[in-house]
Write a structure and sequence with these properties.
This protein is α/β, with parallel strands linked by helices. 22% of the residues lie in helices and 26% in strands.
Length: 257
């Protein structure tokens, strides 16, 4: 086995690899949101920000190893990498396996619009692989390839309903807040999860549609995952990350579940 193929192999043991932990604007030089959840020889992505294909190639994640992309909402730093992923899959990666995309209502239309804006004509060409879509049904488990996803309504203006996700695969559960203000659903999203990945854009300044560290601390007793990491951090949170109550995610970091 070559070094490249060994690096690209999908782990059998459940693992989370953080490909992007930054906010929309690259604070701290971080890639935009993208989380690879692997196990049992299968891999899905949680969100796919505009820089995700670059991050995948930086950290040795083979794009063709991704069975499904699970989207929380339709902002560019969370789904804007999909047009690049799909065009690369056709032109360079030579993908043949189907690609599943799970997301909010309106995802197929928004994806086509983005593809036509970035690469005119790219949404209409014939491909060697099928792109199919699964729409989230709030509170109902939905199978998406190797994963089962339960979506919970979030609070985040993005032109389509936003969600927090609870993803089960390979006998493990990863919970992910997506971008959201505090909602009563968050404790349910993360309860008993092997890993809860929670956005924390600000330190002590509440901002509409996002979580801040002080708000999370105020609700800490309600959050009961087995492990919790903060992500999507703005400059003031990054400056304090060595003093925070929870771990912070780093680009390229791998966690065995």
């Amino acid at each position: 086995m070559t070094a490249h193929s060994a690096q690209s192999a999908v782990p059998q043991a459940p693992q989370v690899r953080f490909l992007g932990t930054g906010d929309a604007f690259g604070s701290g030089g971080r890639f935009q949101t993208c989380i690879a959840f692997s196990g049992g020889g299968q891999r899905v992505l949680l969100d796919c920000g505009a820089s995700s294909l670059i991050a995948m190639k930086r950290f040795g994640i083979e794009p063709n190893s991704v069975a499904a992309v699970l989207l929380t909402h339709l902002h560019g730093d969370h789904f804007g990498g999909l047009p690049f992923f799909i065009v690369d899959a056709q032109l360079y990666a030579k993908r043949t396996a189907p690609l599943l995309v799970g997301g909010p209502p309106g995802t197929p239309e928004r994806l086509i619009a983005a593809m036509e804006a970035f690469f005119p004509g790219s949404s209409k060409v014939s491909r060697a692989f099928e792109v199919s879509h699964v729409e989230w049904r709030p509170g109902q488990p939905v199978p998406v390839g190797p994963a089962t996803v339960t979506a919970f309504p979030a609070l985040h203006g993005s032109g389509a309903p936003p969600f927090s996700l609870r993803v089960e695969m390979a006998g493990r559960t990863v919970a992910y807040s997506g971008d959201t203000e505090w909602t009563p659903a968050l404790p349910e999203v993360c309860r008993g999860a092997d890993l809860f990945v929670c956005e924390c854009l600000m330190a002590d300044k509440p901002v509409k549609f996002h979580l801040d560290y002080d708000t999370l601390r105020a609700h800490a007793d309600e959050l009961k995952p087995r492990r919790m990491l903060l992500t999507h951090m703005g400059p003031d949170v990054l400056a304090l990350r060595d003093t925070l109550s929870w771990e912070t995610a780093e680009d390229g970091q791998a966690i065995e579940l």
